[in-house]
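Standup notes
- DV: blocked on the single-chain target, sequence here:
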Amino acid sequence: MNKLNLNPLKKLEIIIEGAHQEFATDQLDRAGVTGYTIVGNLSGKGSHGFHEGHLMFNEEAVLIMIIVAVPAELVEPILEGFEPFFEKHTGVVFISDIQVSRLVKFKH
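- DV (later): unblocked, structure below
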């Protein structure tokens, strides 16, 4: 059996209001991110209390999570792009170490 070749990357999980999705994806594109996954209708409890994930009026009224796997050198430019945003808006970024197969999917 062939052994998978695993490569280290960083995973960012960016949780923001759906109304700001375009801003966030533009920031990621400018930083050189080659792809991401968007998960909508999040539910959970945080500093502002419990947040229901169902659609109330439109997709902008819900929380979303954008998941990104990037080389370590992209983390700082991404965070710098979001810094002014988080001074005015709610949200959070989780960063963790991961390993991926098929590294070619995460490079230019």
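- Follow-up: Helices lie at 21-31, 72-88.
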